[in-house]
Amino acid sequence: MTLEIISAEKILFQGEAVAVKLPGELGSFTVLNNHASLISALVPGKVEYRTSDNAVHDIDVKGGLVDVDNNVVSVCIY
Fold first, then answer.
1. SS3 assignment, position 51
2. Among 14, 22, 61, 74, which one is least packed by beta carbons within 10 Å?
3. In this structure, what CATH number is given to the domain that contains residue 57?
4. Cα–Cα distance measured from residue 44 to residue 21, given in angstroms and rounded to the nearest whole number
């Protein structure tokens, strides 16, 4: 799936990912390939993602929004 993580200042990541773990308002959740469409608010925590080479990356966030649709995960953080 395609993952885009952006802030007001810059694009933090844009590329392929196999899993994304996000800090949602009702608890953390993981998005995998072919996940159902959703929109969710994010709370302070870490966005963790795994790329196809099995490298795990994380970004601290104060909050934001995520939109998942047709294997595209768009994360807007602040």
1. coil
2. 14
3. 2.60.15.10
4. 13
One digit per residue, pLDDT tens: the chain, 78 residues? Answer: 999 999 999 999 999 999 999 999 999 999 999 999 999 999 999 999 999 999 999 999 999 999 999 999 999 999
Q: Using the structure block, give the residue that is written with the tokens 């953390």.
A: 28
Pairing status of strand 56-61 against strand 11-16: unpaired
Q: Give the domain range for residue 44.
A: 2-77
* pTM of this prediction exceeds 0.90: yes
Q: Is 72 helix (H, G, I), strand (E, B) or coil?
A: strand
What type of residue sits at position 57? Answer: H
